[in-house]
């Protein structure tokens, strides 16, 4: 007997996300690795301190990490879009971006 997907029992998954930060003043680099158990995805980003600004390492960490996480989010959305297409779902107009292209 096949059960409709709407009647599937609840399930839980755990994805592991590691965030690595390295600093070589004036640059901070972030690397995000996401392991879903089925796939591993990676994204990287950097932040650069203006040489005339005061050194506050936490700001570089936050900027680099935030940018790497945004990049990972974009990769996940592209992967989902590809999976939707492969599943044969009808095409829809793309959603309005949640961020500007300059980010």
TrEMBL record:
Region feature Disordered, mapped onto this chain: 83-103
InterPro entries in alphabetical order: Rv2632c-like (IPR015057), Rv2632c-like_sf (IPR038070)
Transmembrane segments: none
UniProt signal peptide: none
Domain of life of the source: Bacteria
Compositional bias per record (Pro residues), positions renumbered to this chain: 92-103
Name recorded for this polypeptide: DUF1876 domain-containing protein
Source organism (scientific name): Streptomyces lannensis
């Amino acid at each position: 007997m096949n059960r409709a997907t709407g009647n599937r029992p609840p399930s839980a998954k755990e994805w592991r996300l590691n965030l690595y930060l390295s600093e070589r003043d004036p640059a901070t680099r972030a690397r995000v690795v996401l392991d879903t158990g089925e796939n591993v995805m990676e994204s990287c980003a950097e932040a650069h301190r203006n040489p005339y600004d005061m050194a506050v390492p936490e700001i570089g960490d936050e900027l680099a990490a935030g940018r790497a996480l945004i990049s990972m989010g974009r990769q996940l959305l592209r992967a989902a879009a590809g999976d939707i297409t492969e599943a044969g779902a009808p095409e829809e107009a793309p959603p309005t971006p949640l961020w500007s292209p300059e980010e």
